[in-house]
Structure formats: structure tokens, C-alpha cells
Amino acid sequence: MPRDTAGPDDVDGVVAAWRRERPDLDVAPLEVLSRVSRLARHLDIARRRAFAEGGLEPWEFDVLSALRRSGPPYQLTPGDLVRQTLVTSGTMTNRIDGLVRRGLVSRQAAPSDRRAVNVTLTDEGRRLVDDAMAELLEGERTLLTGLDAEEQGALAASLKRLLVGFEG
């Protein structure tokens, strides 16, 4: 079992209080999941900061990054974007409309089916998402500075095992 060398944090106080008040409960899950929850809040702050640098909202980054990850020609259908960003088709339509107005994506009829639409990342959209991604990774590296590469790998593997149970 790894030794805790980090010193106390706020979760230690929460866990100790629950153990004192409810000694009949096994509060061990709080030691992991309360820290995951707190780290998620710090990550959300870092992400919002990274996106704000480029004038992007988190939802804009989600759509633009899905297009960017798709590779050249950086094009997906609205249905593909819905699946990748886990929003409704109505929400995605509104998001695409906003990104078209900003000149970050364009819409074209699909060559194989004129009724279908493709959404394509523009040069400006690509520039913004690339800059935001670089800024995001810098912030995420800062969040992980307390762990060496081996510890980061072990943590990633453990979290993956947990997520696979939920996401299959």
C-alpha cells in the first residue's frame, strides 16, 4: 500500500469528521471520490481559463475539438457531433449555428447526399482550438505536478478501470 507523503488536505478533515460522527459507516470511498470531485472542480477552472484565453466557451471547445480530432478535412456530420459531445440534436443545431455565425465552422451539403449536411472546421476555428488545446494541456500539467510520470500512469490506469465499468 502506498504511503501518504503529501500531508493533510481538506478531505482528511471531512473523512475524520464523518468517522467521528458515524463510526458505523465505512467512509473510505470519500477518501477517493471526494478528491476526484475536488480535482474535477480545479480542472473545470483550468479548462475555462484556457478556453477564455481564446474567447471560447467550453461547449464551443467541445465541438471544435471533435472536428479537429477527426483529422483532415476536419469534417463531421451533426449526428457524429451529437454522439461525440453527448448533447441533443436540437442543442447541437444551436451550437453549430453559433459557431457558423462566428466563422469557426461552415456547413455544406454532403456530396453523396444533398439532404445530408457536413460541418467543417474553418481555418480560424482550427487556430482557436489548437491554441486552446495547448493552453489547456499547460494547465492540466500544472494540476499533475505532484505526481511523477509513473504515478500519473498508475492513476490513469486506475481511473480507466473505474470508468470502463460505467462507459463499457
Strand sequence of the main sheet, in spatial order? 1-3-2
- What is the CATH topology of the largest domain? Arc Repressor Mutant, subunit A
CATH superfamily of the largest domain: Winged helix-like DNA-binding domain superfamily/Winged helix DNA-binding domain
Radius of gyration: 21 Å
Domains, number: 2
Q: Spans with pLDDT under 50 lasting ≥5 residues?
A: none
The coarse overall form would be: elongated
Oligomer: single chain
CATH architecture of the largest domain, by name, is Orthogonal Bundle
CATH class designation of the largest domain: Mainly Alpha
What is the β-strand count? 3
How much of the sequence lies in strands comes to 5-15%
Helix-strand topology string: HHHEHHEEHH
Major β-sheet, in short? 3 strands, antiparallel
Total helical elements: 7
Mean pLDDT: 92
Q: Compute the separation of the termini in Å.
A: 28 Å
* Helix share bin: 55-70%
The structural class is: mainly alpha
Gist?
Helices cover 66% and strands 10% of the residues. It has 168 residues and is mostly helical. It folds into two domains: 10-53, no CATH class; 57-136, Orthogonal Bundle (Arc Repressor Mutant, subunit A), CATH 1.10.10.10.
Describe this structure in words.
There is one protein chain. This protein has 168 residues and is mainly α. The chain has seven helices and three strands. The protein has a three-stranded antiparallel sheet with strand order 1-3-2. Strand 2 and strand 3 form a beta hairpin. It is elongated, with a radius of gyration of 21 Å. The two termini are 28 Å apart. The mean pLDDT is 92.
